[in-house]
């Protein structure tokens, strides 16, 4: 550790030190919030919205809004007790460190928290604040179960403060999904948010779109979603209008090719590419001069997709066969 780091602390420590006075200010408001009746606490949401409309920024409102959420959580949210080891009902109140986590998320930064440190509760603080403008907040979780669980778990607090919360699911109908997006706060997976965005851009009329404005999002497991899963593109496909004959021909040719000699496989990129010798073999098998001529430009795609299927995808690991359907397995969610 360098002498400057010992004296001034790391960059992360300096950031946290700068946020502590804000957390202390929020804590100083706690007694005042406790003195409010339920109705008075609920009315704070309307007052915040009026102040926001009058020109106050969300940063200006942050200390008071976080104090309101802390008190509403204490009154309305029940701490989990899966083993029934705690005989008395324990409510949930964000600790100071969770307030700091909420501040960091509101500022658009990354907050690293271990499992069990209350990420679900932390997210409610900036979610409430950013929902005040009425533009919607998306909370991105890693699977449908967590999206539905977290929404239901935090819903009593949101509704107590006059906000609505919804959850999008992969098996939802159009009307259900529309209602979930119309809520002040919407929980869902990154894949579902992504596919809904793609589907909305395929709709003919604007009023048919479900997602609406993209305003503010909180992403759980951000490293996995924005780095690991970002390698897998979201693609909406439909039945091909072309004959399937070329797929069968490509499959027969691909089975004759040898890895390392006729084609190269890149496992990290999930790709397979023909070598010069492989290209010659393919052209001979097809009886054409060049697979890259204008009339044959689709052949490299068919051949290389077939090579990928043979070299990179394995039954019951990367895909399963159900009846007459082949279903691709998501490597991140199963």
Automatic annotation (TrEMBL):
Keywords: Protein transport, Translocation, Transport. Residues 100-258 form the Helicase ATP-binding domain. Pfam families: SecA_DEAD (PF07517). GO terms for biological process: intracellular protein transport; protein import; protein targeting; protein transport by the Sec complex. One of its GO terms (cellular component) is plasma membrane. InterPro entries: Helicase_ATP-bd, P-loop_NTPase, SecA, SecA_DEAD, SecA_motor_DEAD, SecA_preprotein_X-link_dom, SecA_X-link_sf. Residues 1-334 form the SecA family profile domain. PROSITE patterns: HELICASE_ATP_BIND_1 (PS51192), SECA_MOTOR_DEAD (PS51196). CDD domains: DEXDc_SecA. GO terms for molecular function: ATP binding. PANTHER family: CHLOROPLAST PROTEIN-TRANSPORTING ATPASE, SECA INNER MEMBRANE COMPONENT OF SEC PROTEIN SECRETION SYSTEM. This is Uncharacterized protein. It comes from marine sediment metagenome. The lineage of its organism: unclassified sequences, metagenomes, ecological metagenomes.
């Amino acid at each position: 550790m360098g002498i400057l780091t010992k004296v001034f602390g790391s960059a992360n420590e300096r950031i946290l030190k700068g946020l502590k006075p804000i957390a202390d200010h929020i804590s100083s408001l706690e007694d005042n919030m406790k003195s409010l009746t339920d109705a008075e606490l609920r009315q704070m949401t309307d007052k915040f919205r009026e102040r926001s409309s009058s020109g106050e920024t969300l940063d200006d409102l942050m200390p008071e809004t976080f104090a309101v959420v802390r008190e509403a959580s204490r009154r309305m949210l029940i701490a989990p007790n899966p083993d029934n080891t705690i005989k008395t009902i324990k409510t949930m109140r964000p600790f100071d460190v969770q307030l700091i986590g909420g501040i960091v998320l509101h500022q658009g930064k990354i907050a690293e928290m271990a499992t069990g440190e209350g990420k679900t509760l932390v997210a409610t603080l900036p979610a409430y604040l950013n929902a005040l403008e009425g533009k919607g907040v998306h909370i991105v979780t890693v699977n449908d179960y967590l999206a539905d669980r977290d929404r239901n778990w935090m819903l009593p607090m949101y509704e107590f403060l006059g906000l609505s919360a919804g959850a999008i699911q992969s098996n939802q109908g159009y009307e259900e999904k529309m209602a979930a997006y119309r809520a002040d706060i919407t929980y869902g997976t990154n894949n579902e948010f992504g596919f809904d965005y793609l589907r909305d851009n395929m709709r003919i009329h604007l009023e048919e779109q479900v997602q609406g404005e993209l305003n503010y999002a909180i992403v759980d497991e951000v490293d996995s979603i924005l780095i690991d899963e970002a390698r897998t593109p979201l693609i909406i496909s439909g039945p091909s209008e072309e004959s399937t004959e070329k797929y069968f021909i490509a499959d027969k040719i691909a089975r004759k090719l040898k890895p390392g000699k006729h084609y190269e496989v890149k496992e990290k990129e999930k790709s397979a590419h023909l070598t010069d010798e492989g290209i010659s073999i393919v052209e001979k098998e097809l009886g054409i001069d060049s697979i890259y001529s204008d009339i044959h430009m689709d052949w490299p795609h068919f051949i290389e997709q077939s090579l990928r299927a043979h070299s990179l995808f394995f039954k019951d690991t990367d895909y399963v066969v159900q009846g007459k359907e082949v279903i691709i397995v998501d490597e991140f969610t199963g």
